[in-house]
Amino acid sequence: MNKEFDREKMINPKYKKLKYNTMKNHIVWIILLGFCLIGCASIASNNPTAREVIETIKSNLTCQWSKNTVDTFKAGDPDSEVTGIATTFIVTMDVLQRALDLECNLIITHEPTFYNHLDEVDHLKNDPVYEEKLKFIEENGLIVFRFHDHWHRTQPDGIFKGMINKLGWQDYQVEPDILVFKFPESTIGEFAASLKEKFNNSPVRVIGDTEMKFTEVGLSPGAPGYMNHVRMLERDDVEVLVAGEVPEWESITYVRDAGGLNMKKAMILLGHVNSEEAGMEYLATWLNDITEDIPIHFVPAGDPFWTP
After folding, report:
1. pLDDT digits (tens, 9 = 90+) for 163-181
2. Helical pair 93-101 and 128-139, crossing angle rounded to 10 deg
3. Class of residue 270 by CB neighbours under 10 A (exposed 0-12, middle 13-18, buried 19+)
4. Cα(58)–Cα(44) distance, rounded to whole angstroms?
5. CA angle 242, 199, 71 (to 5 degrees)
6. CATH fold of 50-155+277-298, please?
7. The domain 158-270 is classified under which CATH number: 3.50.50.60, 3.30.1360.200, 3.40.1000.10, 3.40.1390.30?
8. Domain limits of the chain?
9. Spatial contact of 114 and 125, defined as CB atoms under 8 Å apart
10. 30-46 per-position pLDDT tens digit
11. Quick one: residue 302, left, alpha or beta (phi over 0 = left, psi -120 to 50 = alpha)?
């Protein structure tokens, strides 16, 4: 019976037609699948490269891009397509791993990657920490770009804006372009305690009389240097300077001497990371406004210090 059925299929035209139509349908589906795969590949290839993302950033700044700058690619292939962007204050191994977990292959950092301002690495050849960090970046297809000089130079300064937002000091700023603020009267001790709370109880160091009452505050994020601090402290409308970090023999000693001379001056040090990191959180928001269809995440590096 099976032989007769098979013989009938071979000689019956309707079975030949059915076989032909089935083959034709298969071919059509294969062609459609091919177009679908090509289309998907085309969509994937529309992701910008890291270099193109940085060009977009440059075109949206209020300042001219300087050739003499530390704002350059530090590792990875700038012509690789971007799957996601992670902004951070400093690109530690922990930050690299978390960026990778978020599927972000472009990391934009404010501070150096390889432990010195210019990211010079000749002296680090054969250093195990440097080599393993670079290996991790390269093996995982990550790209690191530093964004320091121009994030400060654009208006408003991106770091300052992010910090003022985090501190909630917008309504107390005396003038938009000057980092001087006027608050309701408080003591140094009370004010320092409130700052410590804002930064998750990170260590906050205070120079000056904790019972000194004041209303006028200057803000000096990061490590702009001794002269910046002194110029702020010389102002009649700055009683307390909230700063990032400075060597202890510089403006810290200046404030100690001012106190010894019965001058109403004090300083609160937040640490470099705490005094600037919110500016890189703001960068993530800013990037969302100038880019499309790229996942963007802020990855905090966090305060490196702890107290026993």
Report:
1. 999 999 999 999 988 999 9
2. 10
3. buried
4. 24
5. 70
6. 3.40.1390
7. 3.40.1390.30
8. 2-44, 50-155+277-298, 158-270
9. no
10. 555 555 544 544 444 58
11. left
